[in-house]
Amino acid sequence: MSLEAFLDAVRDPWRLEAACRGMDPELFHNEKGQPVTPEARLACGRCEVAGDCLRYAVMNGVRQGYWGGRTPRERNGLKGKMMRGEL
Hints:
Helices cover 43% and strands 0% of the residues. The chain is mostly helical.
């Protein structure tokens, strides 16, 4: 495990359980307007920590990539719902 991966795991331990762990990150970061890759959808669909991943992306303002089974457009506006406990 690289130092960067170790630090990520310490900050966000859910990453160690992510179904995408070890997959090519490019599968989750398409150009704007391009469809999500089937590999990304499958990984997120079977991931036990997709909710943690989604929460990380929303609460940290991640504006690119497919996180927690959601595109940036799908994540837009979820922060308020998460903070109110509605999601």
